[in-house]
Write a structure and sequence with these properties.
HIT family, subunit A; three-stranded mixed β-sheet; about 15% strand; GalP_Utransf_N; transferase; iron; HIT-like_sf; carbohydrate metabolism
């Protein structure tokens, strides 16, 4: 008699409806010995104020300006912005003759602006160490920046279409400054990853007359095996199609296109979710857990399908795999074939769910 398929031990592929792609899951590989690269643990002590930090209150920035002695969340224009508002227009490259160059060599000029968002004046804090009320201020700052840039696009014809808010935490994720901060890049085009999600939302709605993430929330609330946290406004889920070992998604339980539509209750609930989740991350391997995190939401001044299809959610992509020093790398088959993971989403969710909400990782406290 044939054995029953075991999702915790047998290889299988899972579909990601957000990006219309697949991921290979190989749970039996988690048993293999690790002789690969190990990360250096984060520094055990970081001062509350660092005179050499370009982001600390009152300090000079590398370009010569100085930060005010801010006492809360602080936003300023990135001194090394990835996109600029003022630059020459790029001439149209298409000859209109269907040449090989026209088909294969495509380019667009892109304008915009970039911002740095210091979460706290204290150099040694991270999100899991911040109070919920202070995270509420961070979220309100995100909301204010979103609304301000939308107004500038409407009233001043600024080239702002999409605001990508994100945070890279930890040197393992390429963060060059340990001061608690995130970034916001505003472009006149919707970035590729977000654009693909909108295409998937639109395709799903036309096929099923429903919202993709709305249906996914219903499914997860019925199944519950991948839910890590829940409150009135949000779920924290390890997505069925997660790529990173302890990847999670914070998703609105009811349709909310963007942070501009948030009530104070939703901001409070999101602040609570962000703190609880990141505390669990730190407790998992008793380290300051690195990740890349970002918000996906409606474009600025969205109308029509862009507004109707949008559903606010946040992605957390943390790289640690087995311990504070062993990380997941996307290489080999994952670069040349498709993403692959060694533990199932359900196993990851179970481990995160069992961790309590008290911050046991004591570095900098």
């Amino acid at each position: 008699m044939s054995q029953e398929f075991d999702f915790t031990d047998n290889s299988h592929r899972r579909y990601n409806p957000l990006t219309d792609s697949w991921i290979l899951v190989s749970p039996h590989r988690a048993k293999r010995p690790w002789l690969g690269q190990q990360e250096t643990p984060a520094k055990s002590t970081v001062p509350e104020y660092d005179e050499k930090c370009f982001l600390c209150p009152g300090n000079k920035r590398v370009t010569g300006g100085a930060n005010p002695k801010y006492e809360s969340t602080y936003v300023f224009q990135n001194d090394f912005a990835a996109v600029k508002i003022d630059q020459p227009a790029l001439a149209v490259q298409d000859s209109g003759k269907d040449t090989l160059k026209d088909r294969l060599i495509k380019v667009q000029g892109v304008r915009g602006n970039c911002f740095v968002i210091c979460f706290s004046p204290k150099h040694n804090l991270t999100i899991p160490q911040m109070a919920v009320k202070d995270l509420f201020t961070v979220i309100s700052t995100w909301q204010g920046l979103y609304n301000d840039l939308a107004k500038q696009a409407r009233d001043d014809n600024k080239p702002f279409k999409y605001l990508q808010i994100f945070e890279n935490k930890g040197t393992a994720m390429g963060c060059s400054n340990l001061h608690p901060h995130g970034q916001a890049w505003c472009l006149e085009e919707i970035p590729s990853e977000v654009s693909q999600e909108f295409k998937s939302f639109d395709k799903y709605k036309h096929a099923h007359n429903a919202d993709l993430l709305g249906d996914y929330v219903k499914l997860e609330m019925e199944d519950r095996s991948r839910i890590v946290l829940e409150n009135d406004s949000f779920l924290v889920i390890v997505p069925y199609w997660a790529v990173w070992p302890f990847e999670t998604m914070i998703v609105a339980k009811t349709k909310t296109p963007s942070i501009a539509h948030f009530t104070d209750k939703q901001k409070e609930d999101l602040a609570s979710m962000m703190k609880q989740l990141t505390v669990k991350y730190d407790n998992l391997f008793e380290t300051s857990f690195p990740y890349s995190m970002g918000l996906h939401q409606a474009p600025l001044n969205a109308t029509g399908d862009e507004l109707n299809n949008a559903w606010f959610h946040m992605h957390f992509y943390p790289p640690l795999l087995r311990s504070a020093t062993v990380r997941k790398f996307l290489v080999g088959f994952e670069m040349l074939g498709e993403p692959q993971r060694d533990l199932t989403a359900e196993q990851a969710a179970d481990r995160l769910r069992k961790l309590d909400g008290v911050h046991h990782y004591t570095e900098n406290l």
